[in-house]
Amino acid sequence: MRAYYFDNLPGDQRLAHDSGKTVSPELLKKLNVLYWTIPIDEEGAWEGKINEVAKERSYKNRDTINVTKEGLGDSYESKLKTFFEEHLHEDEEIRYILSGAGFFDVRETPTDAWIRIHVTPGDLLVVPAGIYHRFTLDELNAVKAIRLFKEEPKWIPHTRNEETDKNPYRVDYLSNLPSSVSVA
Ligand code: KMT
Ligand code: NI
What we know:
Blueprint: E1 2-6, E2 18-22, H1 25-30, E3 34-37, H2 45-56, E4 61-67, H3 69-72, H4 76-83, E5 87-88, E6 93-100, E7 102-107, E8 114-119, E9 123-127, E10 133-137, E11 143-149, E12 158-159, H5 162-165, H6 168-175
The structure holds 4-(methylsulfanyl)-2-oxobutanoic acid (KMT) and nickel (II) ion.
């Protein structure tokens, strides 16, 4: 996993768009973006470790998503488009990368800058409820990930707009940020 500020230059979303400015793990933590590295070993010990995190954080359920043309079929193009539209969810978006790679872009508060997080196999990323974000594949054009969730998946994307700004999960996310990053 590497996190850095997105360069905001036009061009293919699947390119790195690396401004060269690294984002520290401390800043991600302040934004409530959590991650662990659990290397995928041939013996399968990773699965036990995933189970431990899942137990600690009450992620009771999971499934696997294969973001490829084969995996998503007819909805491939539309899904990729939706993933890259700025949105939030009313629950955490938790992904453990099994193969391939991709970029999660999350909005920094209070600057509104995009922070780009490159995820690769063994990365477990928790995008908090209420944070504006988007996702794209990188040039590998494929990612396979385990999606963890608490009870029922709440994967409805709420597109960024004035109404979504007032969503209780958005308000709650902002109000729980430490004062060093919050707007107030
Ligand atoms: C999402 O909801 O944005 C995704 O599931 C992205 C693909 S999983 C790495
Ligand atoms: Ni999302």
